[in-house]
C-alpha cells in the first residue's frame, strides 16, 4: 500500500455519512435507493458519498439492469489496521538522516571527547546520553556495583545518578547489587521523530 492510497482510504472513512453507508453495506449489498431510505438521506447525498467510497476502493458497484448494486470490498475490510499505516515511506531515509543528525548533535553538545559535561534537562536527550553510555556494557555479562560505578566514572563523576537513571529507564536491571543489561529498542526511533 502506498502513502497516497492510505490517505485516500482514511479520508474516505473520515465522514459520518460514509461510515453509516459502510455499516449498512456490511449487512449486505444494497441499491442507492435502499441506502437513502435506510439512512434517511437524499439519493443525491448517498450518490456523492458512494462515489467517494468507490474512488477509495472500499466498495464495488455492479450494474443490474436499471440499478447499481453496491457491496463492500471484503479484502479491504479483512486487513488489519496496521496495513493502512504500513506503506513505503518515500521520506524514510531523509527522516533517518535527520534522526542521526539530532543524535549526533546531542552527543556533540553533552558528550564531547567521550566525557559527559552535564546531563541534559530534556528526557529524550538524557536517554540518548544513557544509550551511548550503555554501548560499553555487554549483554551476556553480570556486573558488580563496583564494576558499574568504575565504568560510569570514566565518563561522569556522579555514578550514582547515572546508575539509578539506567535502572529507571530499564537499560539495566539490578538484584543483590548485581547488574546486567536489558534488551531494549533504541530510545530514538523514526516513529518518534
Query: Measured on Cα atoms, how large is the radius of gyration?
Result: 28 Å
Q: In one word, what is the shape? A: elongated
**Helix and strand pattern:** HHEHHEEHHHHEHHEE
- Rounded to the nearest angstrom, the distance between the terminal CA atoms is 22 Å
The total of helices stands at 10
Give the tally of structural domains. Answer: 2
Average pLDDT works out at 88
Number of strands: 6
Major sheet attributes: 3 strands, antiparallel
Low-confidence stretches: none
Strand content: 5-15%
What class, by secondary structure content?
Answer: alpha+beta
Helical amount:
40-55%
In the sheet with the most strands, the strands line up as 1-3-2
Describe this entry's structure for a reader.
With 193 residues, this protein is an alpha+beta fold. The protein folds into 2 domains: 3-85, Arc Repressor Mutant, subunit A, CATH 1.10.10; 92-192, no CATH class. The chain is 52% helix and 12% strand. The chain has helices spanning 3-12, 16-26, 32-39, 43-55, 74-77, 82-85, 92-110, 123-134, 145-153, 159-168, and strands spanning 30-31, 59-64, 67-72, 143-144, 172-175, 178-181. A hairpin with a 2-residue loop joins strand 2 (59-64) and strand 3 (67-72). Helix 7 crosses helix 8 and helix 9 (145-153) packs across helix 10 (159-168). The longest helix is centred in the middle third of the chain and has 19 residues, at 92-110. The radius of gyration is 28 Å and the shape is elongated.
